[in-house]
Amino acid sequence: MRDDTEDPNYLMANERMNLMNMAKLSIKGLIESALNLGRTLDSDYAPLQQFFVVMEHCLKHGLKAKKTFLGQNKSFWGPLELVEKLVPEAAEITASVKDLPGLKTPVGRGRAWLRLALMQKKLSEYMKALINKKELLSEFYEPNALMMEEEGAIIAGLLVGLNVIDANFCMKGEDLDSQVGVIDFSMYLKDGNSSKGSEGDGQITAILDQKNYVEELNRHLNATVNNLQAKVDALEKSNTKLTEELAVANNRIITLQEEMERVKEESSYILESNRKGPKQDRTAEGQALSEARKHLKEETQLRLDVEKELEIQISMRQEMELAMKMLEKDVCEKQDALVSLRQQLDDLRALKHELAFKLQSSDLGVKQKSELNSRLEEKTNQMAATIKQLEQRLRQAERGRQSAELDNRLFKQDFGDKINSLQLEVEELTRQRNQLELELKQEKERRLHNRSTPEKSQKPEAKDGKYKIQEENDKIKKSLEENHRLLSHPTDEQDQPLLSEKPQICQLCQDDSLSKNVCKNCRGTFCNACSTNELPLPSSIKPERVCNPCHKQLMKQYSTSPS
Predict the structure, then answer these.
(1) Which residue has the higher pLDDT, 459 or 358?
(2) How many angstroms separate the CA atoms of 256 and 298, rounded?
(3) Could you tell me how far CA 526 lies from the centroid of its own chain?
(4) Pairing relation of β-strands 517-518 and 71-73?
(5) In sequence order, which residues have a C-beta less than 8 Å from that of residue 288 and are 6 or more positions away?
(6) 122-144 pLDDT, tens per residue?
(7) In this structure, what DSSP letter does residue 504 have?
(8) Residue 141: strand, helix, or coil
(9) pLDDT at residue number 180
(10) What are the E-state strand segments in 33-191?
(11) Share of the chain above pLDDT 90, in %
């Protein structure tokens, strides 16, 4: 059973795929490098040269060969000439190419046409118009050629991206006829150190495609070299045969010249004998002379024919020598291309080994990462269990807080009325105290006013008023202290009284005035000036009186707390 790799259709499809991949690589690399360069491209730019080489290979794929005396000739200039019939704007390019003086071959004209179309930024438009006319292309291409299949349309679509490139070429001084169209794969072989994931896989597939294309091109070049060697052998055989025929013709010419000299001698001898002999002998000799002349004419005509044939053979030999030289030059170019391709193939193999090693190392890294992921999953499960336990504790604490709030609310409902009544009593006592202080001040003023009266008559009255006022002040002070103690600790029956019967001293300013306040945070005793602030404490919802140091400390705590 015949292998699929030997099927011509399979080989052509493989060549089309490889050429399409190479076109993608060259177009992408050209656009990226041109944008990074940021200037107008010229003919010496290496990625641009490689792009034209790839396009030339794409246009040559599946071309029908035209037989000539020098062998088969494949040129893509014929299909490109059709573009001016499909797109009138291309007529200017075709006329310019035909007018260039340095172009002598159809291949050179085709290369110049591609460069001018790229300068006009209409290469994609021209290629699309040409590919859409399959009936015209069938005259030049095989049915399974790249320009006749879907790959040609894909390449034409990719060429649209080249419209962002500005190029400028000088055609007059450039030798486009003798350029060797060999693809340099080293431009597309990139190191994959910085690539990860899908980018690395894409580079590996691209390198494998390049390797397949190189192998296919190498196989094709080997077949071409074998065909050329067979042609050289056939030409050498025909050359030896022609040299033998030429030697035979030379020998024949020499014999004819000898016979001609011999006939001339015989004719001269006959003429002399006719002059000396009788008339009858003259008539016989005249007949022999006429026969000899006829024979001489025939030999002369035969000699002319042989000379013409010799000239033809000489011209054919010269043409064959010229063809041999061209074939030898072509063989040398193919051999150079084979050497460069073998070097590129070696580079590809080395890169393949390197990528295989990196793939193994990446597999080890993936295993290590999978183990690390499993450990992290175990830790995550443990943390999830811990979080669940904490959530349960939080719910329990929330339930305890709600119960405490409920108890506090019930307590406030129970003791709210008592607190209000005590506050009213305190207000009433404060009002009485203010009234008594006012009366005391009036009494002092009255006493100062009446100093001019005798001291003896006034002393007993003053002493009696003084004693009465002191007693009333003591009573008011005791009642205020008792009310203040009840208001400050309505719920705590075990606490000691905040104000003793004796007057206390302020802990900050050491003031021993009558009015004192108790800080609800530190339980210290302070005067009105040192305890003027009120803040809500954790023990009560309403604002309570606190001392100045506790006020500063609580304000710092409230400002730093997240809630």
Answers:
(1) 358
(2) 11
(3) 75
(4) unpaired
(5) 270
(6) 888 888 988 888 888 888 888 88
(7) P
(8) strand
(9) 67
(10) 66-68, 71-73
(11) 7
Question: Both tokens of residue 439?
Answer: 């009366």
Q: What whole-number distance in Å separates Cα of residue 411 and Cα of residue 417?
A: 11
Report CA-CA distances (Å) from 461 to 73, 456, 474: 152, 10, 20
- Give the integer Cα–Cα distance in Å for 498 and 484: 9
Is 487 in contact with 419 (CB distance < 8 Å)?
Answer: yes
Which residue, 523, 521, 489, 485, is CA-closest to 501? 485
pLDDT band of 67, cuts 50, 70, 90: low
pLDDT band at 384 (very low <50, low <70, confident <90, very high): very high
Token pair, residue 374, equals 């499993």
* One-letter amino acid of 449: H
* pLDDT band for position 427 (cuts 50, 70, 90): confident
Dihedral sign computed on CA atoms, order 29, 34, 37, 38: negative
| Segment (H or E) for 286 | helix 279-449
Q: Strand, helix or coil at 129?
A: helix
Are 547 and 531 contacting, i.e. CB atoms less than 8 angstroms apart?
Answer: yes
| Selected residue with higher pLDDT from 70 and 144 | 144
Cβ burial of 210 (10 Å; 0-12, 13-18, 19+) is buried
Name all contacts of 481-485 with Cβ < 8 Å and 24+ positions apart: 483/422, 483/425, 483/426, 483/429, 484/426, 484/518
Residue 343 CA from chain centroid, whole number = 29
Residue 547: Cβ within 10 Å count: 25
**How far is the C-alpha of 219 from the C-alpha of 213, rounded, in Å?**
10
- Which of 326, 329, 40 is CA-nearest to residue 170? 40
Buried b (16+ CB within 10 A) or exposed e, 315-339: eeeeebeebeeebeeeeeebeebbe
* Calpha distance 109→94 (Å, rounded): 9
d(CA 353, CA 360): 11
Structure tokens at 411: 């307590």
Nearest Cα to Cα of residue 103 among 43, 48, 171, 50: 171
Identify the pLDDT of residue 193.
45
**What pLDDT, on a 0 to 100 scale, did the predictor assign at position 3?**
53
Can you say whether residue 121 is alpha, beta or left, with left for phi > 0 and alpha for psi between -120 and 50 degrees? Answer: left
